[in-house]
Amino acid sequence: MKSILIIEDEPSIAELQKDYYELSGMQADICHDGEEGLKRALEGDYDLIVLDLALPKRDGYEICKQIRAVKEIPILMVSAKKEEVDKIRGLHLGADDYITKPFSPSELVARVKAHLGRYERLTGKQQPATDEIRIRGLLIDKVSRRVYVNGQEAVMTTKEFDLLTHMATHPNRVFSKEQLFDQLWGFDSIGDISTVIVHIRRIREKIELDPSNPQYIETIWGAGYRFNV
């Protein structure tokens, strides 16, 4: 049974989420403040975290940052903040998805299930030990899910690794932001393709010698992105 941690200070919203997750065959725990939520997230063995932004004692951005530093499990941010800058900030800190309040509980459950399934497939897939991608100074090890640049490890989040590997597996092909979003995130929500831009920027910061003049992931203006070999 999949285990969900809900970090939400509004009891009615937290209990509603818990009921829907349990009706869908998942187990859910609730934390009502940031300090307790961070402690449970770091010490517990959860499959996914649903994280509110406006929390007492510690806000969701800081919690996301600290969780992501040590764990790769999916993090879904939930917030009443609808501004694009808030969404981009959350994604930049490592969140896998961002949904605004008020939300449909059924949609939230669908997103949770999608992220759980995708994470399980990506981390549980068996691949041969020789399954590596080597391009100039870049090494992508699909078995260990690690990336090295000139012998130094570049630590990636789950989505960063998946996006980089997907593009490197299809070199010289131009992908639009919409295509990448559909293939890696699987949702078709207006505006959510901003997550692709954020993840591309973070990947470049980790693998490119000069992120402003990338040699691996090139921007094709008006079309999307291309991985060069």
Task: Output the strand order for the largest sheet.
Answer: 2-1-3-4-5
Distance between the termini: 42 Å
What does the oligomeric state look like here? single chain
Number of strands: 12
Helix content: 40-55%
Beta-strand percentage range = 15-25%
| Total helical segments | 8
Uncertain segments: 125-130
Bulk shape: elongated
The H-and-E topology, N to C, reads as EHEHEHEHEHEEEEHEHHEE
Whole-number mean pLDDT: 87
- Helix vs. strand class: alpha/beta
Query: Largest beta sheet, briefly?
Result: 5 strands, parallel
Gyration radius, rounded? 18 Å
What does this structure look like?
The structure is a single chain. This protein has about 230 residues and is of the alpha/beta class. Helix content is about 40%, strand content about 20%. The protein has eight helices and twelve strands. It has helices at about 10-25, 35-45, 60-70, 85-90, 105-125, 160-170, 175-185, 195-205, and strands at about 5, 25-30, 50, 75-80, 95-100, 130-135, 140, 145-150, 150-155, 175, 215-220, 225. Helix 7 (about 175-185) crosses helix 8 (about 195-205). Residues about 125-130 have low confidence and may be disordered.
